[in-house]
Amino acid sequence: MSEKLQVGTETVELRRKGDGRPLLYLHGGIGDTDWLPVFDEWSREFTVFQPLHPGFGESTGGDKLDGMEDLVFHYIDLLGVLEIEASALTVVGASFGGWIAAEIASRYPHLVQRLVLVGAAGLWLDEAPPGELFGNSPPELAALLFHDLQHPVAAMMAAVTDVAQLPEELIVQQVRAMEALARVAWNPYFHNPKLERQLRRVRASTVVVWGKEDRFFPVAYAERYAAAIPGARLEIVPEAGHLVMLERPEAVTRQLFSLPR
Questions:
Q1: 156: CB partners within 8 A, 6+ apart
Q2: Cα–Cα distance list, 112 to 208, 223, 225, 236 (Å)
Q3: Beta-sheet pairing, 112-118 with 89-94
Q4: Bridging pattern class, strands 46-51 and 112-118
Q5: At 185, phi and psi to the nearest 5?
Q6: Dihedral sign, Cα of residue 141, residue 143, residue 146, residue 152
Q7: Quick one: how far is CA 47 from the chain centroid?
Q8: What residues does 150 pair with on adjacent strands?
Q9: What are phi and psi of 159, to 5 degrees?
Q10: Across the strands, what pairs with 91?
Q11: Over the chain, what HEC string results?
Q12: Distance, CA of 207 to CA of 121 (rounded, Å)
């Protein structure tokens, strides 16, 4: 299922399935870089494209990132390579990928017809600063990102008490990914100070999906996104933390398929 595409001077690791209208899934920094079972369900109606960000997996170019604008241009170039028509695109973005999705939809509003933001980064609230991602141990990350600590991925993270015991290849991959993430999200921390006022430009039919128990980006961020995007609908998912795509994928599917065709 995985393939390699040349986008400019870089290689993109891409997975795709389906033969319907195009849907671009933009993953977060942790937890959803693999092909998720819910994508098989989506592929019955959409052609699901799941690229890995520069620096993640076998996608190259993470060491050259110098801010969010680089990622936006990267994905505009990828859409060109995929020959996706303007106004036909659905974009689903989770966490860091939700931030990228919001930037694309606000900068190129004619490209995105439907937009689903799942626990999206990108905004900043002084009264509710986001949690600390960089430098935390896997068990600390599990507590930050999950509501259900018995979830298989959460349990696996919580069991890693000594990172040095992990396979060297996995450690190298994680270091590359975190370096690429930090190049965009370290300073300013997981936000673009200009994004909120740009969100008025979004034309897409939009739903903002958020875990009620999100401890990384509290629900106040969901409310701010929904208020800033014209006509956006807000869906708060009970018994879910930041990684709604892992804990409650059916809730995301329900909201995705509720958007106007």
A1: none
A2: 15, 21, 17, 23
A3: parallel
A4: unpaired
A5: -110, 5
A6: positive
A7: 18
A8: none
A9: -80, -10
A10: 24, 115
A11: CEEEEEECCEEEEEEEECCCEEEEEECCCCCCCCCCHHHHHHCCCEEEEEECCCCCCCCCCHHHCCCHHHHHHHHHHHHHHHCCCCCCEEEEEECHHHHHHHHHHHHCCCCEEEEEEECCCECCCCCCCCCCCCCCCHHHHHHHHCCCCCCHHHHHHHCCCCHHHCCHHHHHHHHHHHHHHHHHHCCCCCECCCHHHHHHHCCCEEEEEEECCCCCCCHHHHHHHHHHCCCCEEEEECCCCCCHHHHCHHHHHHHHHHCCC
A12: 15
One pLDDT digit (tens) per residue for the chain, 261 residues = 689 999 999 999 999 999 999 999 999 998 899 999 999 999 999 999 999 999 999 999 999 999 999 999 999 999 999 998 777 899 999 999 999 999 999 999 999 999 999 999 999 999 999 999 998 999 999 999 999 999 999 998 899 887 777 788 878 888 899 999 999 999 999 999 999 999 999 999 999 999 999 999 999 999 999 999 999 999 999 999 999 999 999 999 999 999 998
List of residues 6+ apart from 84 with CB closer than 8 A: 22, 24
**Lookup result for tokens 């006022």:** 197
Angle at 184 between CA 182 and CA 190, to 5 degrees: 85
- Inter-CA distances, 219 with 21, 78, 173, 232, 237, Å: 31, 32, 31, 15, 10
What is the number of other CB atoms lying within 10 angstroms of the CB of residue 250?
10
What residue has token string 């709604």?
Answer: 244
Task: Count the neighbouring beta carbons within 10 Å of the beta carbon of residue 215.
Answer: 15
Beta bridge partners of residue 112, listed in sequence order: 89
